[in-house]
Amino acid sequence: MLIKKQRSRQTFEEKITHKAKGTQESYKTLLNKWEEFCLDKFQNKEIISELKLVEEDTLWDTLQEWINWNNRKGQMPQVNKFRFSLLKKYLHHRGIKILKEDIEENLDFPTVIEDEPYPLSLAEAQTIIANAPYKKKVMYLCMISSGMRIGETCQLKPKHLDLDKNRIMVKIPASIAKYNRSRKTFFSTEASKVLRPMLKNLDDDDLIFGTHDNPKYAETNEMQQLKRLLVKIGLYEKQENGHGKITSHSFRAYFITKVSRFDRDLAHFLTGQKNKMYLPRYDRLTDDEKLALYLKIEGDLLVDDSVKQKAELSKERMEKLELQKELDKQRRVDKKTTQKMVLNILRKQGIIEN
User: Fold this and answer.
1) To the nearest whole percent, how much of the chain has pLDDT over 90?
2) CA-to-CA distance for 88 and 90, rounded, in angstroms?
3) Which of 97, 169, 206, 257 can pair with 202 through a Cys bridge, CB separation 3.0 to 4.6 Å?
């Protein structure tokens, strides 16, 4: 005989244990906030059993109070809507099913203000990196040259790196990647040079940049430290939506912008953006072929002026060598063609035999 198991917060947390750590932490944060709201409003953190029994209007009024409560707590509209989407799944687990159409009809969310994304300039990147502590300097160079997300960077370990290439190749496992899809990207020669000494004192399973085993805490900590640095050097400025103009995402956006000018699909591929159209084309490339493509755009991802100048000189030398090879090849072809023409003329005139 099947025994019905009473669904609770505990059974919900057990249900989501297969999800990424970051997702689990998002749900835990949501559930803690929900219980805080229930205690604040109803002096009882467990009100779901009562919500199942009340009239529909009371349910919607309670959920609207939750939205308004988050808003008064200073929660940004985007986060407010995101938390409600998590709450909806939790309520469904507990037996309260809410349809999308009913949400649109019965609930009002704060208006989401969408500012135009602020483009990080090379001069700003140089100023940030020049003033950052050494470990942060390395991390920012790695992010700006690879397009990695801050969450992925915080979970990066030495075992995820291939140091045998002439550029460090990053093998981002599905377990730490967004959309649970593994991918590969690269660190520039500039980033690789300053990262390699750091790796000597780390074991394979040590975090390279992360400051906490909990990825959400580590990510939040990094964002706060970057904000403090920006305030200190006079580069912090808020947009109308409450976000800073420059954030940890700015390094990733810089990478996407630069690489997209060369090949938009390659930018999507290296950064793991959700676009299935480009995948077959790049999945079939070998690691060396991917690196060859990366090297073509690496110069645009370098930050230090002296490094950029050396890279440009090296690129010019390589281009001259390639051009010289082509010219030499053409001369050899032309010489053979001329010799063949002369021989044909001599044969026709009977000067030499066939």
Assistant:
1) 56
2) 5
3) 206
69-87 per-position pLDDT tens digit: 998 888 888 888 999 999 9
pLDDT of residue 179: 79
> What residue type is 324 in one-letter code?
Q
| Encoded tokens for 148 | 């990695």
pLDDT of residue 193: 94
**10 Å Cβ neighbour count for 226?**
23
Tens of pLDDT, residue by residue over 13-42, are: 999 998 877 788 889 999 999 999 999 999
17: its two tokens = 């244990």
Per the prediction, the chain carries an average pLDDT of 87
> pLDDT at residue 120 above 90?
yes
Contacts of 171 (CB under 8 A, 6+ apart): 160, 161, 162, 182, 184
What contacts 227, CB < 8 A, 6 or more positions away? 236, 244
CA neighbours within 13 Å on the CB side: how many for 256?
15
- Three-state DSSP string of the chain: CCCCCCCCHHHHHHHHHHCCHHHHHHHHHHHHHHHHHHHHHHCCCCCHHHHCCCCHHHHHHHHHHHHHHHHHCCCCHHHHHHHHHHHHHHHHHCCCCCCHHHHHHHCCCCCCCCCCCCCCCHHHHHHHHHHCCHHHHHHHHHHHHHCCCHHHHHCCCHHHEECCCCCCEEEECCCCCHHHCCEEEECCHHHHHHHHHHHCCCCCCCCCCCCCCCHHHHHHHHHHHHHHHHHHCCCCCECCCCCECCCCHHHHHHHHHHHHHHCHHHHHHHHCCCCCCCHHHHHCCCHHHHHHHHHHHHHHHCCCHHHHHHHHHHHHHHHHHHHHHHHHHHHHHHHHHHHHHHHHHHHHCCCCCC
Q: Which one, of 190, 202, 149, 148, lies nearest residue 170 by Cα?
A: 148
N-to-C CA span, the chain? 99
Alpha-carbon Rg of the chain, whole angstroms? 29
pLDDT tens per residue across span 195-245: 999 999 999 999 999 988 888 888 889 999 999 999 999 999 988 767 789
